[in-house]
TrEMBL record:
It comes from the Bacteria. It comes from Streptomyces wadayamensis. InterPro entries: DUF5133. This is DUF5133 domain-containing protein.
Length: 83
C-alpha cells in the first residue's frame, strides 16, 4: 500500500467527521450518500474495509508520520546541498 500524505489523511478524516455529523443531524438520502462516499474514500486510502478500521489505520499513520516525514524532507535537502 502506498502511504498517503498526512495532509490528505487529515482532509479525509475531517470530511468523514462532517459527513457523520450531517447524517446524524439529518438522516436523509443525500447525507447517507455523502457518508458512504466519505467512508469508502477513507477505506480505500487506508487499505481497510470498515470505517472503524480506517479510522484506526489513519490514526496510526498520522502518529507514525510526524517525525519521519520531516526528517525525510530535511535529509533530501542536506543531500542536495552536499551534491
Amino acid at each position: 500500500m502506498i502511504t498517503p500524505h498526512p495532509q490528505r489523511l487529515r482532509t479525509l478524516l475531517a470530511r468523514y467527521a462532517q459527513a457523520r455529523i450531517a447524517h446524524f443531524e439529518n438522516d436523509g438520502e443525500a447525507t447517507r450518500r455523502a457518508l458512504e462516499d466519505a467512508t469508502y474514500t477513507l477505506c480505500v486510502t487506508t487499505g481497510t474495509s470498515t470505517a472503524e478500521a480506517a479510522l484506526h489505520r489513519a490514526d496510526d499513520l498520522l502518529a507514525g508520520s510526524a517525525a519521519p516525514y520531516r526528517s525525510t524532507v530535511r535529509d533530501q535537502g542536506e543531500r542536495a546541498m552536499a551534491a
